[in-house]
Amino acid sequence: MSGQTSVNQDTAIRHVLIRGRVQGVGYRAWTERTACERGLGGWVRNRRDGAVEAVFMGETAVVDAMVAACRAGPAAARVDHIEQVVAEPGLLDLCRPNERFSLLPTM
């Protein structure tokens, strides 16, 4: 992915950790679908500690809107807390080859 997309002033990359009832409720699939609909790059995965982790890359306003949408998530989810930080482009290297947004295995 790192060679496929250039990062400029209008581009944001955020690393997001979502906690609550976010596993076993379709949160990863919802995140993948919603990010793809918005044209974002990145990835999402479950963590062994019960959280969902994601990286979003795209136009700053679109990334901000995606993080805001993650506060609700799919209907069956209950989001208790979201942490977000500016991410380095190297985190995008976890994307699978030829995928703009990847659903990764649990870490």
What overall form do the CA principal axes indicate?
Answer: globular
Number of helices: 2
- The number of E-state strands comes to 5
Which architecture name does CATH use?
Answer: 2-Layer Sandwich
Structural class: alpha+beta
Short description:
It is built from two helices and five strands, in the order E-H-E-E-H-E-E. The longest helix has 11 residues, at 27-37. The protein has 107 residues and is α+β, with helices and mostly antiparallel strands.
Description:
- With 107 residues, this protein is α+β, with helices and mostly antiparallel strands.
- It has a single domain, classed as Alpha-Beta Plaits, CATH 3.30.70.
- The chain contains two helices and five strands, in the order βαββαββ.
- Strands 4-1-3-2-5 form a five-stranded mixed β-sheet, with helices on one face.
- The longest helix has 11 residues.
- The N terminus is likely disordered.
